[in-house]
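The records we work with from here on pair a chain with its fold. Taken together, the tokens spell out the fold as the letters spell out the chain. The record below shows the convention in full.
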Amino acid sequence: MTASAVKDALVATDAVPRRLSSTLTPLREDHMVDKDRIAGSAKQAKGAIKKAVGKATGDSKLENEGAADEVAGKVQNTVGGAKDAMRKALNKI
């Protein structure tokens, strides 16, 4: 199903009011975000929470695991950003 078909279906079922339907725009290929960026951001958030809980409870092992997860998330997010940049550059060719 295409993005415009989804938009039409939402408007037809009144899931989206007609006055808002003009604001729905389909995602273009150049707006796609790499899955590594999403997963990396999630891992960073998980790490920050683990780190904070470890610090609050005095659990140094949990705090260190959280710090490691944060770093791993940052690396994964950076890899995703590089993939996005490469994809954007290739689309311009």
Q: What stands out?
A: DSSP finds four helices and no strands in the chain. Residues 20-27 have pLDDT under 50 and may be disordered. The chain has two domains: 1-29, 32-93. Residues 32-93 form one domain.
